[in-house]
């Protein structure tokens, strides 16, 4: 367990005192207000490079030392960021190789942020020099809690340095044999065979974008290269400050990098959450459940440790299509949700609004108004008080018994496949729906990837597992053989790790045997097309978007299609293997009937499905002695829930039931 020194939960956020060095009055006021708001941590140094090193080799750290000292004197920890998220102008001037090249082959001009070439030796060297000095100066600071590598690493670079690294990477991957690459990528199609690795270009937007294997491998390479870059920063810090853990802040389900790969290199997983609360296209509950899924993805990567909510906004952001204010109580509820899902922190971007430039209208705890009695400030303060009451929950864990398999390689492959209905593929939403429906049944799910061990779960839902990497199918079969319940859906097992189609029937690589069926065709439905599944209990489910023509060999048929030429053909099946079972649903079902199916599976898997009232979310964290049950009510009416123990937020005792007021939450502690 990484010791984050704190005994309770962290509360704070990004703080940019370098923007206010000529205003000591404001800096002093900040500390006073932080204490008032119950802030015990701030993140310093994100984007501070041009103040830390205004000219090459000229370092100015005094201001940082001073502010860190003063924060610490006031009981506030520091998460110290390396400043590599944005480059000072002198760096791009002196080392133009650090500038990124885009997918059209255009070299970027200096400016903005998150735009360095991760391969550039000059950039890596400059960052190393900076990180070394930061670690030397602040590594032993008693207030230093955690290193924050760069900021929201992302994007990809197509420059000659990156191209070269890509080619070397491919050469290694394909054992120096270009014919292996040609076969894996099926390059005979459209005469795209390569003769040498140095002929392989990245998939430039105006170049080779038609080879699915290349597109996928470029994404994997981009992850590998960005991770390699991140590791270079981590290495410097670990060498000099082995006791200080490292993190970097992830962005939700950012599609550009496989976070699972990056997570392996980090001590602590942290992420930035900015849901579109109170929008006009879904219920608040749905918005929050998407956020719960994102939290679960982070938790899944944390491997038995709490994660951190590194950024969220107390008010409104400035980059949504509509930058809507968080309505009263939303902020506290969102903070409670983070902790309920397994976060040991609630942090913000940002403490104080910048006076000018790009984010001057982005929400913050302290507005341009500068007051500590604003609606937002007061709710932040209340959040601080709430987190204090929940202190003992820190270090406890959420331990789900079910899992949803969500995989980056798979989403990339699905996104890029040419077929079906592009806009209806919705892989991410499909995984979220599984997660949400399970949650409504009272079943907490972990989010796992195809390489994770499945041992801890009685039930695994693996929707749309289009790509089967090496060993994936074997692992799934093994899971069922050992008594697990596995649910697969339409679009399972179509391609291998390089996106070559499996021959001899989908789902491939032996899974036709596991499920006792094969899929002969897949239909894309127009929104106006209608089909239904009739289950053996006579219930009817609606089919949307996709339906497969299944040929069943030795599975039990649980539901059949009711319309069109597939009328009477199997749609939902189950094959028993020992005490486990492999379930298959060959169509996208409406929520209610999918939920019915999930309930049946959970029951068979021995998971006590205990459905929640509508608009209510529940999570359970546990430590050695206590179970902490969190309830959140997003509805407009009070909700009656099952509860026993002490409500840590109010001190009230619950015997068997409790009522959660609208837009409120509760946390019941009960000894195990
Ligand atoms: C990201 C960044 C922050 C800030 C916020 C705005 O999370 O890390 O620097 O730009 O977005 O929402
Ligand atoms: Zn590059």
Automatic annotation (TrEMBL):
Gene3D superfamilies: 3.40.50.880, Glycosidases, Golgi alpha-mannosidase II
Chain positions recorded as Zn(2+) binding sites: 117, 157, 159, 162
Catalytic activity, as annotated: Hydrolysis of terminal non-reducing beta-D-galactose residues in beta-D-galactosides
Coiled coil: none
Domain Beta-galactosidase trimerisation positions: 401-607
Domain Beta-galactosidase C-terminal: 616-668
TM ranges: none
Family matches, as InterPro entries: Beta_galactosidase_C, Beta_galactosidase_Trimer, Class_I_gatase-like, GH, Glyco_hydro_42, Glyco_hydro_42_N, Glyco_hydro_b
Binding positions for substrate per the UniProt entry: 113, 151, 319
MF (Gene Ontology): beta-galactosidase activity; metal ion binding
Residues annotated as catalytic: 152, 311
Chain ranges of the Glycoside hydrolase family 42 N-terminal domain: 14-390
Biological process terms in GO annotation: galactose metabolic process
Record-level GO cellular component terms: beta-galactosidase complex
SUPFAM superfamilies: (Trans)glycosidases, Class I glutamine amidotransferase-like
Keywords: Glycosidase, Hydrolase, Metal-binding, Zinc
Record EC number: 3.2.1.23
CDD domains: A4_beta-galactosidase_middle_domain
Family of the protein in this entry: Belongs to the glycosyl hydrolase 42 family.
The protein's name: Beta-galactosidase
Organism: Candidatus Limivivens intestinipullorum
Upper classification of the organism: Bacteria, Bacillati, Bacillota, Clostridia, Lachnospirales
